[in-house]
Amino acid sequence: MRLDAYGVSVDAPDGWEVRITRRAPEGHEPGAHRRPVLHAATVPLPAVRGDFGGGVTGTLTSTDVFVSLFEQDPGAARTALFADEGFPVPVVSDFAPNRLQRSIPGQCGGQWFFHVGERAFTLYVVFGSFARRAELFNRLTPLLRSVRLQGDLT
Length: 154
Description:
By secondary structure, the protein is mainly beta. Helices cover 9% and strands 31% of the residues. The longest helix is centred in the last third of the chain and has 14 residues.
């Protein structure tokens, strides 16, 4: 199934739950733009969850994967942290236990910062098992290959 919203599109492979939503702006400033976030997981996504998997990553088993594609504020696209242009192409060796936002024994993850046009993104992936990272990487790859990002939203 193809999902397409807010300049983000993805094909949801069998066995994945995928949602594209818009999060409330920081401080809920009147007129502030609500940025999209894509969440994908091989476990059910709860209705309420953190941008980087709070409420989800703790439920992963050794065969599960969680993905967050989080759009940052537009000015970030011109900063050094987001200097890489285009969607990243992770490799298995990118995933390690010390790359998690919140350490959970046995898990590993990876995080990438990049921009597409004037849009800055963080891609964050959690594998339920460091020992099975090669297998989980193969499960992740079709999802990541299907992601398309529109460079500018005006």
